[in-house]
Specification:
Blueprint lengths: L3 E3 L10 H10 L4 E4 L5 H14 L2 E6 L25 H21 L3 E4 L10 H9 L6 H39 L2 E5 L10 H10 L5 E6 H10 L4 H8 L3 E6 L1 E3 L2 E4 L20 E4 L7 H15 L3
Parallel strand pairs: 1-2, 1-10, 2-3, 3-4, 4-5, 5-6, 6-7, 7-10
Antiparallel strand pairs: 8-9
Helix pairs in contact: 1-2, 3-5, 4-5
């Protein structure tokens, strides 16, 4: 597959698809992933311009386009949670995920990247990151907070995971009709679903289905840096079910950096990547054009892609 870049890098600076894709075209990317902060009008204009420029839309990040009545700032990937115990919210999550699947099918994209919702407990990930940034990892306060996070999540997670499985059951059937694959993504916040073990539960239930694993380099490395799971374990456990990867670098707990700006060793992924694995650079602002060109050349050479 052609190396892609996510429009999450520059979508916030444009309200027209032509300008957005002109900038991406200057970076010499010939494939993109549509990010979750795009209006229906933006999606349509990007689709039109991508055909003119010969840029392939390989994947979409849920929700795309943004749900009705929400601004791009409000339309986060779990603005409606597929794990919600509130059936009205969960039905909206399913509705707008189906809309994303429809859009992916219409545009000829291969996959939709999913956030599967969250366990509804106070999330303390940022507090733990603050202790990490102070150099207190493995000190008493850090260990106490991390253990409390694990305890709280474990006691509450089963009910929310059950809702995720119910949601994915319906979405899997719909995606099959539409000829689109669904990639369940590694998460950043500890309260989010799935954690490293829940990925296995999902993949076991949906074996030989439309649902696969989507690996995120920054998120998996954050889990290792904070002490929750080893990065390589995600790949060893679920590499056979891998459909796509988000490629971004990380320094400590700051992720979504352009590859080569942080300290992650991208060679770690190479044994797990197949030619058909979707490969998407997901750097965010303030990554620069110069950094992204360097990242593109590095990743393309390392993974032997165009």
């Amino acid at each position: 597959m052609t190396l892609a870049i996510s429009t999450s890098w520059n979508a916030h600076r444009f309200n027209d698809g032509a300008g957005l894709l002109f900038e991406i075209n200057q970076l010499k990317f010939k494939a993109i992933e549509l990010s979750f902060n795009l209006s229906a009008g933006m999606v349509d204009s990007i689709a039109k311009e991508s055909r003119r420029l010969g840029i392939n839309i390989q994947s979409l990040h849920n929700y795309c386009p943004i749900p009705d009545g929400l601004t791009p700032a409000q339309a986060l990937p779990d603005c409606y949670s597929l794990a919600s115990l509130d059936e009205q919210e969960r039905s909206l999550a399913i509705k707008y995920t189906k809309s994303t699947i429809d859009t992916a099918s219409r545009l000829g994209a291969r996959a939709v990247v999913l956030h599967c919702g969250r366990v509804q407990i106070p999330d303390l990930t940022r507090r733990l990151i603050n202790l990490y940034n102070q150099g207190l990892k493995d000190q008493a306060d850090y260990i106490k907070l991390k253990d409390e996070m694990i305890r709280q999540r474990k006691s509450q997670a089963p009910a929310f995971l059950k809702q995720v499985l119910n949601s994915l059951d319906e979405l899997n059937a719909y995606a099959k009709i539409k000829g689109v694959f669904l990639g369940v993504e590694t998460r950043f916040y500890h309260c989010e679903i799935p954690d490293i073990f829940e990925i296995g539960v999902i993949l076991k239930k949906f074996c030989d289905a439309q649902i696969y694993y989507w690996h995120d380099t920054g998120h998996a490395q954050l889990m290792e840096n904070l002490g929750f799971a080893k990065h390589k374990d995600f790949l060893d456990l679920y590499g056979d079910s891998l459909i796509g990867v988000h490629l971004h670098d990380i320094l400590g707990c700051q992720d979504h950096l352009a590859p080569l700006v942080g300290k992650f060793d991208f060679a770690l992924l190479k044994p797990y990547l197949k030619p058909e694995t979707l490969k998407v650079i997901e750097a965010h602002y303030p990554a620069t054009i110069k950094e992204l060109i360097k990242s593109r050349d590095f990743i393309a050479k390392l993974y032997e892609v165009d």
